C-alpha cells in the first residue's frame, strides 16, 4: 500500500491506477525524447538534450514532491516536470523549437534550449504568485553544477521560515518551513567544485535539501573512472553520514530501474528532510542513456557492445514494465494500449506545437510577399526584387530571419524609389515587434523595480555629530533589521564579530544567529544561499568579504543571478543584495577595483559604487523597497573616516542610476566613483590655485548608468572630459566613455580629446609606494587635468614638464 499526498491509504485499485498513470507519463516522456531527436535531425529544431533513460526515478521524486517545494536541477528532468503537471507535450516541443511566446513555452519563452525547466513564481506583472499553491522549479542553467549554489538557498529558506520570528505572514512562501528543496545532478557533474562546496555547506547548515544524483556512469563520453574517486559519489561521501554524535547527511543508494524501491526511498528521504531538516543524498545508480548524451553525437562511439546491451536490458522503463507484468498489475495488452496511446498523443502534440510556432512566422512571410509584389511590379529593379520574392515564397518553413533578410535586401534596391518608405516602415515595425521577444526582461519590469525609488535625502540636526562611517552603516543596518523581519545577512566574519570592519557590530546579539550569520569560506555558495532565499520571498544580504574574492562567485552571479529575469522572460526573480568592499587598501588581493570585469559579466544586476557610507546606507534602504538584485561596493578605506550622522537612518534613499555633482566648475568635467573621488576632490582643490575650475561628477551607479545624461549636460558647459578610476586601462573607464560618447552623444560638446586615467595594467603592489605607483595618485590626477588645460590654452597654462 502506498500513501498519497493527503496521507489516506490507497486501495489496490487506486494503486494500480496510479502506477498505470505513472507508466503512461514515462512512455509519453520517452516518446517526446525519441521524436524530439528526430525533429533536430530533420532540421526543425536546432539542438536537443532529453530525459530518456532517467524517467522512472523522476516519477518517484514527483510523488514525494509537495506544493511549496522547489526543484533545482538540470536538463534530464522532463519526466519529473510532466509528472508534477508543469510540462505538457506541446510545451515540451515549443521549447525545442524555441517558441518566443511565454504562453507556448513557459520555461523560457524560447530563450533557453529545450530541457531547461522552470515554473512561474511571478505573474505577468512581476508580482509573486502564491508559491504554496504550486509545485516550483527554479529555472535551470546549462553550466554543470550551476544549480547547486541556489539549491542551498532554496533549502535554507525553509530553515529561516521555521525558526525566525516575525515571518508568520509569509504564507505564500511557506508553511512552518516544511518545504523541501530537491536537487538533481548528473553523476559526472558532481566532479565540479560547486557540488562539493554546496554539499558541505548544506551539511553544516542542516537544511531540508534532497539531492538526487542520476548516475549513468558517463558524462558525455567520459566514464566515471575519470570523474569520481572509487567511481561512486555515495561511496566517497560516506563521511557525511550522520551518526548519534554528529549532524550530517542521510545517504541512500538505489537502482534507477527499481520502481518500488525508488518510491520507498523517496518517501523516506522526504520524511527526514521535511520533518527534521536533515539533508539527504540519494545516489540513483544504473541509469542509461538510450539515445546518447544529446543530438550532437552518438554514444555508440564510446560505449562497447556489452554496455549497450546492458543499457537495453536495464532501460528503466523496460524494467518497470517487467515489474508490472510480474506482479500482475497489468497484462501485455494493456501495456500496448498505453504505448500506442502515448505515441499518438505525442505525435499530435508535436504537430500542434509546430503549427503554433510556425503560423505567426508564416503570417509575416505572406504579409511581406503581399507588400513586395506591387512594389516589385513598379520598380526599376523588378527582376531582382521578384527573385527575392520567389526565393522567400519557396521557403516552406521560414524563420523571421529569412523574412527580414529579404525585406532589408529589397530596401537597398529601392533607394531611389518612393516605395522605400512603406517598406522601411514595415521593417521597422516588424523589428520593433520582434526584438523584445528576444531582448525584454533583462531587469524587473514590475512597479517596484529600481525606477520606482524616490530620492529621500538624509536629514541632519543642526548640531549633527561626526561619527565613524562604519558606525553610521551599522546603525542603519540596525534600523533595517528592525523594520524588515525578512532581511538577513551572512558572510565570512559577519556574525559574531560583526564583519571585518564592524559594520554589523552587536547585531547578531540583537537579531540572532540566523539573521546575522557567520558562514564558511565559500563565496559561490554564499551567493547561492542568497539567490535561493531571495527566490522564496526573503531579503538576503550576502556578504563577500573583499571585492577581490568576488571572482570565486562571479560565475554564479553571471550565469545564474544576472540571467534570471531574462531567461525566464520575467517569471522568476531573486532580489538579492550583495555587499562587498573594495578599491584601494593594501596589496595585490585587498585593493581590487575590477569594475570592468564586473559590469561586463553582470548585466542584469545593479552595480553600485557609493563614495561613502551615507551613500551606501541610502542604497541599502532603496534596494529593500525594490525587487531587483544589486551589488554594493563599499570603500575599504572609508570605514574609519568621519561622516555626519543623519537623523533618518533606515529611511533616506539614494536613487539608483543617477549621478551626483559634488563640485560645480566651468573648465573640465571629471567623472569618477568610489574611493578615487577623494583624490579627485583633492586634485581639483589644488587646481583652483592655478585658476582651473573643475566640475566633479560622482557616477554612483555603474549599472544602470546616468539615466538623466547629466554628464553630457556638464560637458556642454565645460567642453572637456576626464574619467578617472582605479580599474585597469580599458576597464570601467572605457565603459563610462562609451556611455558618454555613444549613448549621451557627449562628443558633440567636446573641445579636447576625452581621456581616461586609470591604474596600471597589473594588480596593485604592496605598501604605500606600491599604491602610489599602481593606482592614480592626486598628483597624477592634477597633472593629467593640467595637461588637458595646457593643450587647450598653452599660454595661460604653461607646460609643467
Ligand atoms: C561548466 C560546464 N562544462 C561543460 C559543459 C558541457 N557538458 C554538458 S553536459 C556534460 C556532461 C554531464 O554529465 P552528467 O553530469 O553525468 O549528466 P548526464 O548528461 O550524464 O545526465 C558536459 C560536459 C557544461 N554544460 N558546463
Ligand atoms: Mg552522467
Features:
single chain; 801 residues; alpha/beta; 7-stranded mixed β-sheet; 6-stranded parallel β-sheet; globular; binds magnesium ion
Summary?
With 801 residues, the chain is α/β, with parallel strands linked by helices. Helix content is 43%, strand content 11%. A 7-stranded mixed sheet has the order 11-10-12-13-15-14-20, with helices on both faces. It has a 6-stranded parallel sheet with strand order 2-1-3-4-8-7, with helices on both faces.
Cα separation of the termini: 91 Å
Poorly predicted residue ranges: 1-5
Helix proportion of residues, in percent? 40-55%
Number of helices: 27
Ligand names: thiamine diphosphate, magnesium ion
The count of DSSP E runs of length 2 or more, i.e. the number of strands, is 22
Give the topology, please.
Blueprint: H1 12-41, H2 55-64, E1 70-72, H3 78-83, H4 89-97, E2 136-137, H5 148-163, E3 181-186, H6 193-205, E4 209-214, E5 218-219, E6 222-223, H7 224-227, H8 233-236, E7 250-255, H9 259-276, E8 280-285, H10 305-313, H11 316-326, H12 332-378, H13 382-394, H14 400-413, H15 420-439, E9 466-468, H16 469-483, E10 487-491, H17 507-511, E11 516-518, H18 523-534, E12 539-544, H19 551-561, H20 564-567, E13 577-582, H21 595-601, E14 606-608, H22 613-623, E15 630-635, E16 642-644, E17 660-663, E18 668-672, H23 676-688, E19 694-698, E20 701-703, H24 710-718, E21 721-724, H25 732-743, E22 755-757, H26 767-774, H27 778-792
Parallel strand pairs: 1-2, 1-3, 3-4, 4-8, 7-8, 10-11, 10-12, 12-13, 13-15, 14-15, 18-19, 18-21, 21-22
Antiparallel strand pairs: 5-6, 9-16, 14-20, 17-19
The chain binds thiamine diphosphate and magnesium ion.
Residues 186-188, 216, 218-219 line the site of magnesium ion.
